Amino acid sequence: MLDTTHPQTTAVRGASISGRLLAQRHQAIAALFSLVMVGLVLSPMAESWKAAPQDNFPLSYYPMFTKKRSGHVRLSYLVGITADGDEIPLHYKFAGRGGMNLVRKQILQTIRSGRTAELCHKVARRVARSTRRPIQDVALVAIVTGTFRSDEYFAGQTRPYLLTIEAVEWVKR
User: Fold this and answer.
1) N or C end of the chain: smaller count of CB under 10 Å?
2) How many CB atoms lie under 10 A from the CB of residue 2?
3) What's the confidence (pLDDT) of residue 124?
4) What is the DSSP string of 14-76?
5) 165: CB partners within 8 A, 6+ apart
6) How far apart are alpha carbons 88 and 95 in whole angstroms?
7) Positions in the chain whose pLDDT score sits under 70
8) What is the three-class DSSP state of 122?
9) How far apart are CA 6 and CA 168, in angstroms?
10) pLDDT in tens, 116-134
């Protein structure tokens, strides 16, 4: 018999047995699917305990975060030097268009191809057109490659322990 005094329960009390079984079946399928997905997401963790772990995209155990790395990092970048001798890090966009990683790769390719002086000249021209401080005070532009000790860098020692000057150019205003 249907309970008409409580309309919210009418649908439940009036549901057929086959409808209830179908709903339970759908819940079971959803639960099984969820378990399979959780298992797939967690399965790469097993790689961490293997002697020779394999990184299989898209199921990865994230070796870019767990892989042992050298304690040294080499970066090529732009530096501006004022008439007083102060160093000002220059934004990567003075060297090219695109995101930071793309421009850094372009700088590295330029160094490897021996065209660093040409790039340095372009950077100096762009710096000369800048009206912002402290860029206005830059008298000399340099493309350098610094080698940093990671531990020291993150402890506050942000100057490289090895610096290679790839190219320099005076800023003509």
Assistant:
1) N
2) 9
3) 98
4) H--HHHHHHHHHHHHHHHHHHHHHHHHHHGGGGGGGSSS---BTTB---HHHHS---SEEEEE
5) 142, 143, 144
6) 15
7) 1-15, 55-67
8) helix
9) 85
10) 999 999 999 999 999 999 9
pLDDT in tens, 56-82: 666 666 666 556 778 899 999 999 999
For tokens 């990092």, what's the residue? 73
**CA 115, CA 167: separation in Å to the nearest integer?**
9
Cα dihedral: 52, 58, 59, 62 (round 10): 60
Q: Cβ(55)–Cβ(61) under 8 Å? A: yes
Q: Which two tokens stand for residue 39?
A: 């298992």
pLDDT at position 3: 55
Q: Are 44 and 58 in contact (CB under 8 A)?
A: no
Residue whose entry in the numeric block shows the structure tokens 């961490």: 48
